[in-house]
């Protein structure tokens, strides 16, 4: 009997979910049980299963990866390359978003600001006064969570940045203690990592069902009518994301990684479809690790360091979206932003994309920081909520793909062979 590969199963589930969600809506039921509640239950169950894996997988993979790298020089080199890649790709994504939103001007309709037709409120003169002279100083607070006061509480609250920082320190100093203790600890964490990967394999068998439920729930809730008033904004974001996904990333893979981009798309397809349906880089991390190691051929030493870090701080799609959303809101209010203010938006989008958690709709928090920083009313976020859920799915896919490209590019720069060479 022919067994479909996982990515085909997920793709079929996506198509069926769009049809089912559109047909059933939020009210249809069978035997007194609404289809929407079934979608909600199954989707939540699948997401919970993925989230269950995150903390032990991140801790074990980073500790094993860092301890496996060894000395401080090797760690510093790998860490430097990783941060340089993540900062560079996020900046490129933001600049693409900035260019597109200024060219298309989705907040201007027939030469007039769109505030009245999309229900924006507030006194424009007061808002203009607040926009002037604002800086990015308030963003520093976002990074205080990097050093948690309680590592257990950080894990329980999903503060991944603090968890990663602690794991990096633990893995690094594991190499500094006596060999007898180091070996025992290393074997323990290696064992935890191997078990977590097996559990991941098991959970991923249910991915098509989970994806179906998650996407059907979104379609049933939003339908297609919500896109009409914000169609130009939606298209602007999607086109900008597509440029980054289909042009920038393949060029990096080809020119710097010296690998075939098409093979990488195929290798990452299950993870990309999972990212699209879950809207969470963190929840997709188990699948991302599996695809990068098993399909793309990147070593565990590299992937276990680069990917967990990327799932938390590398948010190309999110950074792009934050930039477009903030300038769209300003355009809709009829406010012309100066070069200095737009530069501030770029800077704050870059910083908040690092600090934002890899969870659904977390970018709304980052957008509120940007709006407050430049003096725009935070309530204006409400106008983009109608299309935010679907755009969240799109930008998370870009986030995850950028992480995976980073793992490949960095692995190749470290001299790893056989990447994207086997049968995919």
In short:
With 424 residues, the chain is mostly helical.
Low-confidence stretches: 130-139
Give the second-level CATH assignment, the architecture: Orthogonal Bundle
Q: What Rg do the Cα atoms give? A: 22 Å
Q: If strands are numbered along the chain, what order do they take across the biggest sheet?
A: 1-2
Give the averaged pLDDT, no decimals. 81
Strand content: under 5%
Structural class call reads: mainly alpha
The oligomeric state of the chains shown is single chain
Which percent bin holds the helix content?
A: over 70%
**Top-tier CATH class:** Mainly Alpha
Number of structural domains: 1
Separate helix tally: 16
Overall geometric form: globular
Distance separating the two termini: 20 Å
Report the count of strand segments: 4
Sheet bearing the most strands, described?
A: 2 strands, antiparallel
Write a concise keyword list for the protein shown above.
424 residues, mainly alpha, Proton glutamate symport protein, two-stranded antiparallel sheet, 4 strands, globular
Describe the structure.
The chain is mostly helical. It has a single domain, classed as Orthogonal Bundle (Proton glutamate symport protein), CATH 1.10.3860.10. The protein has helices at 6-24, 35-69, 72-104, 124-131, 151-156, 160-174, 179-204, 207-222, 231-255, 261-278, 281-295, 300-313, 316-332, 339-355, 362-374, 385-413; strands spanning 29-30, 33-34, 108-109, 112-113. Strands 1-2 form a two-stranded antiparallel ribbon. It has a two-stranded antiparallel ribbon with strand order 3-4. It is globular, with a radius of gyration of 22 Å. It starts with 5 loop residues before the first helix and ends in an 11-residue tail after the last helix. The model is unreliable at 130-139 (pLDDT under 50).
């Amino acid at each position: 009997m022919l067994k479909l590969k996982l990515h085909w199963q997920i793709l079929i589930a996506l198509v069926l979910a769009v049809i089912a969600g559109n047909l059933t809506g939020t009210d249809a039921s069978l035997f007194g049980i609404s289809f929407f509640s079934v979608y909600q239950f199954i989707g939540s169950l699948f997401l919970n299963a993925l989230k269950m894996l995150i903390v032990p997988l991140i801790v074990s993979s980073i500790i094993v990866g860092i301890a496996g790298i060894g000395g401080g020089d090797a760690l510093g080199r790998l860490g430097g390359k990783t941060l340089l890649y993540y900062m560079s790709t996020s900046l490129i994504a933001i600049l693409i978003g900035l260019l597109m939103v200024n060219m298309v001007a989705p907040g201007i309709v027939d030469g007039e600001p769109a505030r009245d037709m999309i229900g924006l409120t507030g006194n424009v003169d007061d808002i203009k006064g607040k926009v002037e002279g604002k800086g990015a100083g308030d963003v520093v607070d976002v990074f205080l969570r990097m050093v948690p006061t309680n590592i257990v509480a950080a894990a329980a609250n999903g503060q991944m940045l603090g968890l990663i920082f602690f794991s990096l320190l633990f893995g690094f100093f594991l190499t500094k203690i006596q060999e007898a203790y180091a070996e025992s600890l290393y074997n323990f964490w290696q064992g935890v990592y191997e078990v977590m990967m097996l559990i991941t394999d098991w959970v991923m068998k249910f991915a098509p069902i989970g994806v179906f439920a998650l996407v059907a729930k979104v379609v049933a809730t939003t339908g297609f009518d919500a896109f009409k008033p914000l169609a130009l904004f939606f298209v602007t974001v999607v086109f900008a994301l597509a440029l980054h996904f289909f042009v920038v990333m393949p060029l990096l893979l080809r020119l710097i990684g010296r690998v075939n981009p098409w093979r990488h798309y195929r290798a990452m397809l299950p993870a990309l479809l999972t990212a699209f349906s879950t809207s969470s880089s963190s929840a997709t991390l188990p699948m991302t690790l599996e695809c990068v190691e098993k399909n793309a051929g990147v070593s565990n030493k590299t992937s276990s360091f680069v990917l967990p870090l990327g799932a938390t701080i590398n948010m190309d799609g999110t950074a792009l979206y934050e930039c477009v959303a903030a300038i769209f809101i300003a355009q809709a209010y009829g406010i012309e932003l100066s070069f200095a203010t737009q530069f501030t938006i770029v800077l704050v989008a870059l910083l908040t994309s690092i600090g934002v958690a890899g969870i659904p709709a977390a970018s709304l928090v980052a957008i509120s920081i940007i709006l407050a920083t430049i003096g725009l009313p935070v309530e204006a976020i409400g106008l983009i909520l109608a299309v935010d859920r679907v755009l969240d799915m799109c930008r998370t896919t870009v986030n995850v793909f950028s992480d995976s490209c980073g793992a490949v590019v960095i692995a190749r720069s470290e001299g790893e062979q056989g990447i994207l060479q086997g049968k995919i």
